[in-house]
Design a protein that fits this description.
By secondary structure, the chain is of the alpha/beta class. Helices cover 31% and strands 20% of the residues. The chain has eleven helices and twelve strands.
């Protein structure tokens, strides 16, 4: 089976973040920055869309830390032939930003919320308060985003006891809760074994909430296998890069916060495009870059988890 063409671009607009989550940031914390200007981001995306990109997601770090994020969203929403524009956030700044983002043209929001218990959330984020994240989820729903996807990175001994509680959020038909196998970026080799919870075990834990019914629609290039818990109106997603790699269907490339075009989230393969962006890209060059990135994608990832999640953007 041939791989689908590259049609999905994720853009890390900053490597700055207001949280220090265990699965993403080192314990000491790191200083991030905004390397690309808003105009550079918009120009790159506009040209990429002209070359076949149909879907764009803005990530970080925490993208809402950028003072110009609403303006960037507004400019991207006006790009001709862009079919879907989304953003991934930890939700803590959404109470103030949800309505302006929606009005600017943002279509989808994913919120990283890997615990509901205040103590667990505090440990997972190394000191953040759950109240802001919960308020962000409510703000996204009130602003009319639907579905809101709640991303849960499952870590053994940290938040695996929260699986059932988080799954109950899917009672609301406007929410899809997506459970993600832990990916040990920037961690010592032993971290995967210490924290890893396999998809099969996650499914078993979900069974504590109710019967898990697989959804029959074609998965295609989607990363998540989707389910519904009997009696719930919302859905459950399961992303299993270890247990069920979907490399053969992957249609994604990533523009990192440092201005590098990355072929594979897990194994890397990067092209330094910042000098080209600063010099001025044309359509022929963009077509060549996207073709290069597509050719660098592995048939099946090797699980190297090279790089820094806060600059790659997930």
């Amino acid at each position: 089976m041939s791989r689908p063409p590259v049609s999905y671009l994720r853009v890390s607009v900053t490597s700055r973040c207001n949280l220090r989550c265990l699965h993403c940031q080192p314990a000491c914390g790191v200083a991030g920055e905004d390397v690309l200007t808003g105009d550079e981001i918009v120009g790159f995306v506009r040209l990429a869309v002209a070359c076949g990109i149909e879907k764009v997601r803005l990530t970080g770090g925490e993208p809402l830390l950028r003072a110009d994020i609403v303006e960037i969203v507004g400019a991207l929403a006006s790009v001709r032939d862009l079919k879907q524009l989304g953003l991934t956030t930890n939700g803590c700044l959404l109470p103030e930003k949800a309505v302006p983002l929606r009005q600017a043209g943002l279509q989808r929001v994913n919120i990283g919320l890997s615990a509901l218990d205040p103590v667990v959330y505090d440990r997972l984020t190394r000191g953040a308060h759950i109240g802001r994240a919960k308020a962000g989820l409510e703000a996204a729903l009130d602003a009319g985003f639907e579905p809101v996807k709640v991303n849960v990175v499952v870590m053994r001994g940290v938040n695996d006891g929260e699986i059932a509680n988080l799954a109950r959020l899917s009672r609301d038909g406007r929410i899809e809760v997506r459970f993600i196998e832990y990916m040990p970026f920037g961690q010592e080799p032993a971290a995967r074994e210490r924290y890893f919870v396999a998809a099969d075990e996650i499914i078993e834990r979900l069974g504590e909430v109710g019967e898990l019914v697989p959804l029959d629609e074609e998965r295609g290039a989607a990363s998540a296998a989707r389910y519904r818990i009997a009696g719930h109106e919302g859905t459950i997603g399961l992303i299993a890069p270890h247990s069920e790699p979907f490399c053969g269907a992957c249609n994604r490339v990533r523009l990192t916060a440092e201005g590098r075009l990355r072929a594979c989230l897990i194994d890397g393969g990067e092209l330094d495009v910042l000098p080209l962006i600063r010099k001025g890209l044309d359509r022929a060059t963009m077509e060549h870059l996207l073709a290069q990135a597509a050719a660098m994608k592995p048939a099946v990832h090797a699980g190297t988890f090279c790089g820094d999640m806060r600059r790659i953007g997930g």
